[in-house]
């Protein structure tokens, strides 16, 4: 990496919560030290470089620096992934930087196969009824941005998926017998409607400007077919949402974030989830 602007790098601090490792530190520094071929599934949403107001990280690199940085992150992810691993990269552009996710994908094309391109729909209007939430874009020339990308990147494009486990039941049950399906389930396809919970305060969103709902990493891990014991990594874990999904599925997670406050939130969310499931037996 050559053109990356200076970002303060805190010293890494590592802790264990249940089956999971939380690391406060710089993603690149930590990734470089992880062993090759060691991770089954990476689910992450890095900064999008669209000027979000994170607690410490400044989301305003030049486009060139951002693309260099994310490409280097991609190289490290490819190195540490197992050959049959999956990398689910959640990213979006903004109205003023609409090309950025696509520019990044062109760079990552040299490293990964784009096995699936999933569109995460956060809000949709069906007829006149709106479902889900979106952040309104105040503009005469842009429409609201209601979706984000989930790029499913693999090393060779041949990772078998659990399409039915992540799938949905048939609406027309006659399809099951007519088309010889063994179970009442079909592939969900590449549009995932996963709305945010309704919240009224920033605190309910953990005072973080860019989280994803737990259902999003859950869907990725289910589609990959991650089994208990599988190693899950989120190098930009924020409030630890991917680790919550991993915990609920009996998987082992590692999460990295450079922000002490977000790591504290991740720790608290994970502890609460583990305590709740301990209490319920
Ligand atoms: C889009 S957010 C991830 C949010 C997460 N998916 C969640 O649900 O909470 C990106 C995160 O990357 C973190 N970050 C930015 N630069 C980083 C770096 N160099 N190393 C590690 N984390 C970094 C930010 O603090 C932020 O929490």
Description:
The chain has helices at 27-33, 63-80, 100-108, 174-178, 215-224, 241-248, 260-279; strands spanning 13-17, 20-24, 39-44, 81-91, 113-121, 123-126, 129-132, 147-154, 191-193, 231-234, 252-257. The protein has 281 residues and is α/β, with parallel strands linked by helices. The chain has one domain (13-161, 190-279): 3-Layer(aba) Sandwich (Rossmann fold), CATH 3.40.50. The strands form 2 sheets. The chain has a 9-stranded mixed sheet with strand order 1-2-11-10-3-4-8-5-9, with helices on both faces. Strands 6-7 form a two-stranded antiparallel sheet. Helix 5 (215-224) packs across helix 6. The longest helix is centred in the last third of the chain and has 20 residues, at 260-279. The termini are far apart. The model has no long low-confidence stretch (mean pLDDT 93). The structure holds S-adenosylmethionine (SAM).
Bound molecules: S-adenosylmethionine
Which fold name fills CATH's third level, the topology?
Rossmann fold
Overall body shape:
globular
Taking the sheet with the most strands, its summary is: 9 strands, mixed
Class inferred from helices and paired strands: alpha/beta
Total of DSSP H or I helical runs spanning 4+ residues: 7
What's the number of extended β-strand segments? 11
Distance between the termini: 48 Å
- Tally of distinct domains: 1
GO biological process, one term: DNA restriction-modification system
EC number: 2.1.1.-
GO molecular function: DNA binding; N-methyltransferase activity; site-specific DNA-methyltransferase (adenine-specific) activity; site-specific DNA-methyltransferase (cytosine-N4-specific) activity
GO cellular component, one term: cytoplasm
């Amino acid at each position: 990496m050559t053109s990356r602007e200076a970002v303060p790098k805190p010293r890494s601090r590592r802790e264990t919560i249940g089956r999971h490792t939380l690391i406060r530190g710089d993603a690149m520094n930590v990734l470089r030290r992880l062993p090759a071929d060691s991770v089954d599934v990476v689910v992450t949403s890095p900064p999008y470089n669209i000027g979000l107001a994170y607690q410490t990280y400044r989301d305003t690199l030049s486009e060139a620096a951002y693309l260099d940085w994310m490409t280097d992150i991609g190289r490290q992810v490819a190195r540490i992934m197992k050959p049959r691993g999956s990398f689910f990269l959640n990213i979006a552009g903004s109205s003023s930087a609409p090309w950025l996710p696509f520019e990044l994908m062109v760079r990552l094309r040299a490293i990964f196969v784009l096995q699936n391109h999933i569109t995460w729909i956060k809000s949709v209007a069906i007829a006149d009824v709106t479902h889900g939430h979106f952040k309104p874009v105040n503009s005469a020339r842009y429409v609201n941005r209601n979706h984000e990308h989930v790029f499913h990147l693999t090393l060779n494009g041949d990772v078998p998926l659990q399409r039915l486990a992540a799938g949905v039941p048939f609406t027309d049950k006659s399809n099951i017998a007519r088309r010889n399906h063994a179970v009442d389930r079909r592939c969900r396809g590449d549009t995932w409607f996963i709305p945010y919970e309704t919240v009224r305060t920033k605190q309910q969103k953990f005072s973080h400007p860019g989280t994803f709902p737990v259902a999003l990493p859950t869907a990725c891990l289910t589609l990959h077919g991650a089994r208990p014991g599988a190693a899950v990594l989120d190098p930009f874990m924020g409030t630890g949402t991917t680790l919550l999904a991993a915990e609920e599925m009996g998987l082992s997670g590692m999460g990295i974030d450079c922000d002490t406050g977000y790591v504290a939130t991740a720790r608290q969310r994970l502890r609460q989830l583990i305590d709740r499931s301990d209490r319920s037996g």
